[in-house]
Design goal:
The complex is a heterodimer of chains A (303) and B (258). Chain A is mainly alpha-helical and 303 residues long. Chain A is built from 13 helices and no strands. Chain B has a domain of 174 residues: Rossmann fold (3-Layer(aba) Sandwich). In chain B, the strands form 2 sheets. A 6-stranded mixed sheet of chain B has the order 6-7-8-3-9-10, with helices on both faces. A 4-stranded antiparallel sheet of chain B has the order 2-1-4-5, with helices on one face. Chain B is globular. The chains are: A mainly alpha (303), B alpha/beta (258). At the A-B interface, helix 8, helix 9 and helix 13 of A face helix 2 and helix 7 of B.
């Protein structure tokens, strides 16, 4: 009590004006209440994550073994079915999508960052933001109409294309943000040495912002690996390994969906197993981002 | 204003006007900068000295909305002529900035050689020679010769600024512009760099912007005094400080405003 009074006196002296008695104590109480509320909010936000992870691990772990990962799906009721083709299909489609999306996305991001005043830049940057918000099923329908109908087949290629359309806006945005953080003084230092504009962008700006770029790409890949809706109408899914790019192709999220809504307990367990694998892959991506990419050089430039 | 034609003027501005959008920062500046000497550009904040120096190496025009009119003549040729490549000009007129800005992703060695490496020079022998020569000229060689692979940002502020000076020297410019190169540094680092600047005038033409009058008095041969975008007075440093002709100059020098 004595301590409280003394710090109230300090408040009064520092403020130099007369405060009503108890103001300092009321402030302390409000402080504690707000801290408590914020802390509760954090805990509440963690609840869904913990519950989902717990559920997936509990239900999915029993299904996981080596043959699960290396076998093809078997008919319902026949034991030993696996997700090998889904793993391969996801790998191929996400890989192809990344090969398409990275050059386009990074190129667009560089343009938005380094030439922001140009009319083309302003318009397409806005278009990019709109595309980023598109429902993925709509993108799936678009690719269905444009590619699947004209090639007369569901295909891994169509699936990869749909995924790349989802990835491009993400990569463009994170690239733009990462490059904008590079201080102007570095660009000026390079140009003051008689280095041309485009060399300055490629060798200095990108090199300084490259960890941000890599983070953006990895996050886009993780997102693509988990998308289901765009694949339903493009890759369709399959029980076999893909024999080429222009055939129905299996993917992990598709398998989870198909098995998960089926009435068969055997398949449902496999769906949980596949979900667990998918989550492990996503976690691995996110952790590797944190682990391999250290403190950004652009931050070091500020010291 | 220019009674100093005894040395040839390396750089000369004629009717130089510059600004941003509607804002006029420099109004009709006519200044001759003699070769192999140190010219200080002085004046209170906002007088346009930074804008002026950035017009000399065509850096000003890179800012969106920037406008430049008039001529800047290097060895008799106007660098703003449409036939001139600004990138080539910046190789002849180098610049050192107020806050040291070594490239954070490069080692000390790569930083010094950035101007060469980024322009495609690959011969290791040439690169090693240029690196040592430039670092020696910047009084930095002995301190870093065994640490060339360390990142450029691992040096102290004063060392980083000397690294930036070495980096500018490596491309062998004819003119070196310095925009308040010591204002972010402590007095000891400042003294080292001032010594370095004086040593440069043997081979280079140096233009240094400074808001520190004592530094201008210590380091420069000629001084130009700018005030609200106009060149008020120009002459040898001795004359400007001891015998200013204009009343505004006199007021600034005696500290009546700053």
């Amino acid at each position: 009590m004595v301590q409280n009074l003394e710090s109230e006196k300090v408040d009064l002296i520092i403020a130099g004006i007369s405060l009503a008695p108890g103001v300092a104590r009321r402030r302390r109480i409000v402080n504690k209440v707000m801290t408590g509320l914020v802390f509760t909010a954090v805990v509440l936000a963690m609840v869904p994550l913990v519950l989902i992870l717990g559920e997936v691990v509990l239900r999915g772990a029993p299904a996981i073994n080596l043959s699960f990962l290396t076998n093809l799906p078997r008919p319902v009721g026949v034991p030993g079915g696996g997700i090998a083709n889904a793993l391969v299909g996801s790998f191929i489609m996400v890989g192809l999508a990344t090969l398409i999306a990275v050059p386009i996305g990074v190129g667009a991001g560089i343009f938005f960052s380094e030439w922001p005043e140009s009319r083309l830049s302003i318009v397409s940057s806005f278009a990019n933001d709109v595309l980023a918000e598109f429902p993925s099923i709509v993108i799936g329908i678009f690719v269905y109409v444009v590619i699947v109908l004209s090639t007369k087949t569901f295909s891994g290629f169509a699936g990869a294309l749909a995924l790349s359309i989802i990835m491009i806006p993400i990569i463009a945005r994170t690239t733009e943000e990462s490059l904008k953080i590079v201080p102007i003084t570095l660009r000026e230092a390079s140009m003051a040495l008689g280095v041309s504009r485009w060399r300055t962008v490629i060798r200095v700006v990108i090199s300084t912002g490259k960890s941000g770029l890599a983070t953006g790409i990895l996050l886009a890949v993780a997102r693509a690996a988990g998308e289901t809706a765009p694949l339903i109408l493009t890759a369709l899914g399959s029980f076999y390994f893909p024999q080429g790019l222009f055939q129905p192709t299996a993917a992990l999220p598709l398998l989870i969906y198909t098995y998960g809504i089926s009435p068969f307990r055997d398949w449902q367990t496999q769906a949980w197993g596949a979900a667990l694998i998918l989550i492990i892959i996503m976690l691995a991506f996110n952790l590797s981002v944190k682990f391999f990419i250290g403190r950004r050089p652009a931050e070091r430039a500020e010291t | 204003m220019s009674d100093y034609q005894t040395t040839t003027s390396k750089l000369e501005t004629k009717r130089l006007k510059a600004g941003f959008g509607k804002l006029e920062v420099l109004k009709n500046v006519n200044l001759q900068i003699p070769e192999r000497s140190i010219t200080a550009i002085m004046g209170p904040s906002g007088c346009g000295k930074t804008t002026f120096i950035r017009c000399l190496n065509r850096l000003h025009e890179l800012t969106p909305g920037a406008k430049v009119e008039g001529e800047v003549i290097l060895d008799g040729a106007n660098i703003y002529s449409p036939k001139v490549d600004p990138v080539a000009i910046r190789r002849r007129i180098g610049m050192v900035f107020q806050k040291p800005n070594p490239f954070p992703t490069m080692s000390i060695y790569d930083n010094v050689l950035a101007g060469l490496k980024l322009n495609g020079v690959k011969d290791k022998k040439i690169l090693d020679e240029v690196a040592e020569r430039s670092l020696r000229m910047a009084f930095l060689w002995d301190e870093v010769k065994n640490h060339l692979k360390k990142p450029g940002t691992a040096l102290s502020g004063g060392q980083q600024q000397r690294l930036c000076i070495a980096r500018s020297l490596a491309v062998e410019p004819e003119v070196i512009l310095m925009d308040e190169p010591c204002s972010a540094l402590d007095p000891i680092a400042t003294a080292k760099i001032e010594e370095l600047i004086v040593s440069l005038k043997r081979d280079y033409t140096v233009v240094i912007v400074t808001h520190n009058m004592q530094q201008a008095a210590r380091v420069s041969d000629f001084t130009a005094f700018l005030y609200i975008g106009e060149l008020i007075e120009y002459g040898s440093t001795k004359d400007i400080f001891e015998n200013p002709k204009s009343e505004i100059t006199e007021k600034y020098i005696t500290g009546k405003f700053g």
